[in-house]
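Q: Could you predict the 3D structure of AraC family transcriptional regulator?
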Amino acid sequence: MKTICLDNIKTSYFDTRDIVLKQRNDYWQDAISQVFVPLDSQTESSESFWGRLESRTCSDLTIVRVQGASQHVKRCRQKIRKTPKDLVLMSFMLKGKMGLDYYQKQITLKEKQFVFYDTDQEYNLNLDTTFDQIVVAIPKARFEANFGTSKDLYGYSFGENHPLQQFYEHCLQDIFTTNQLFTEPQQCMIEEHLFHLMTHMVADQYPVKTSYLFNDIKQYMTANHIDPQLNIHEVAQAFRISTRYISKLFQKEDMTFGQFLLAERLRHAKQLLQITSKEMYAVKQVAYDTGFNDLSYFSREFKKLYGLTPSEVRPLNT
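A: Sure. Here are the predicted structure tokens for AraC family transcriptional regulator:
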């Protein structure tokens, strides 16, 4: 194994063709277990088997190019119990195909497709032919910050025939062709770009499964709507996604970010007005306490939505 440090990027190489024949299988199993998680690897013929692995770190991600002859890789329950590691793997097939058995799902990953699977679950990878793929190891907390906590995305293929697929593939491959020294901020920028491409392809090709992220965003806005400074940039930063992607999620519901936030504030204001009197709680204070800075704007939008002024929704006897 060779390890080279390029500024903050650590690069590792494993190649079985540099190893004597009888040690190749053990060497390969150790290599993939070190880079990813402990795994069992089986090959049909030790004489014809070969494998090459190049790994580079980029911010929170470990990006690995894996090439080799046919093999079977297994992540079993015993390995998970002994060596837990909170990682989600994303496999992108450049050449060949891969069978994935994961959590009662069985798919065949073809060229130009990618799939997510959780290392906390058992899985089998069946590579029947010579293959070339790029695997991104993502900390689960980072994955869930972008896609939410739903498990529905695991074991489902993405990318085929998507307009962004080619850009995503080139971005992944370019990581292994450049010798540039990347600073930490630059690595973070590359990581965000990869996630943006991933997120858009997932949202476009499996929109039903992105509803959990949209629900999480709306819940966050509902919980924080009383903050008059709440805006789309803050929410995007909280979920580590782009403002454009948030806008796209709202567009699918025929609304905008601002419309939803305004409706949440007005809904809360109406509730407060209905259970208080003007002596207890002035209209101006209700407006300020539900995220409004401008009383005139609050009154105008309130009447537009409910057909009554804020004072008119109050009960006659409180």
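Q: Anything worth pointing out?
A: Residues 1-9 have pLDDT under 50 and may be disordered.
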